[in-house]
Amino acid sequence: MKDRSSTPPLHVHVDENTPVHVHIKKLPKPSAASSQKSHKRGMKGDTVNVRRSVRVKTKNPPHCLEITP
Fold first, then answer.
1. What is the rounded CA–CA span in Å between residue 55 and residue 53?
2. Does residue 3 sit in helix, strand or coil?
3. How many separate domains does the chain show?
4. What is the pLDDT of residues 6-62, one digit of tens each?
5. Is the residue at 37 inside a domain?
6. C-alpha to C-alpha distance for 68 and 62, rounded to whole angstroms
7. Is residue 13 part of a domain?
8. pTM for the full predicted model
9. How far from 35 is each of 43, 54, 56, 58, 62, CA to CA, in Å?
10. 7-40 residues labelled b (16+ CB within 10 A) or e (exposed)
């Protein structure tokens, strides 16, 4: 998994029976990087089905999001 140092960390606690669907949005790349763009086939994007916890480590201070039913 890539280190997403420009985004805050995401840490979620839910009951294992609670369905959770998470999309991680990509930031737009600089114009120099877009000229070297490669086409990937069969990729649906950054989609993760989460049952228990997700953690993305960054250098930014931690943020906590609690989801209660």
1. 7
2. coil
3. 1
4. 667 777 788 888 888 877 777 677 665 445 555 555 555 566 565 555 565 555 555
5. no
6. 20
7. yes
8. 0.25
9. 20, 33, 28, 27, 34
10. eebbeeebeeeeeeeeeeeeeeeeeeeeeeeeee
